[in-house]
Amino acid sequence: MKYLLIICSVLLLATGACKKEVMPDAPAFALKATAITFKAGVEGAFTFEGNPGIISFYSGEAGHVYKGDGINKSVAVKGNSEARLEKFTYTYAEKGTYKAYFIAQNTNIYGSREVVRQIDVTVTD
Questions:
Q1: Is there a domain that residue 47 lies in?
Q2: What pLDDT sits at residue 49?
Q3: Is 7 within the bounds of a domain?
Q4: Please, what is the average pLDDT of the chain?
Q5: 49: domain CATH number?
Q6: By CB atoms within 10 Å of each CB, which of 12, 18, 31, 46 scores lowest?
């Protein structure tokens, strides 16, 4: 009986140690355009394809530059629990040319994978 307990304990430890960590897949995410033009002060729409878990947006305006110097903030576009999106609207306040970025992520308890998509934005009067 003692040997049976030892064998069962060893088998439980051996099978528990073989647990495989499954990383999430890289998100399928694509913008439908490489450049877009908006009017200042008027809401414009970015369209995209795919269904990542999380989408963040950096407009390219001061304080919202992707990997820029200083403290920059993204705009949350979609969270894991939200329904699939195909469009995101945003209003630029001032005319100019901006490099906007969308960061799409799939995340689980073992890690995160992301893709970065850039789009050139021209804002006119």
A1: yes
A2: 93
A3: no
A4: 87
A5: 2.60.40.10
A6: 18
CB 83 within 8 Å of CB 51: no
Which residue, among 63, 81, 82, has the nearest Cα to 73 in the 3D structure? 63
Report the number of distinct structural domains present in the chain: 1
Q: Is residue 27 part of a domain?
A: yes
Q: Report pLDDT digits (tens) over 18-65.
A: 567 788 999 999 999 999 999 999 999 999 999 899 999 999 999 999
Taking the whole predicted model, whether its pTM rises above 0.70 is answered as yes
| C-alpha span between 18 and 44 (Å, rounded) | 51
Host domain of residue 77: 23-124
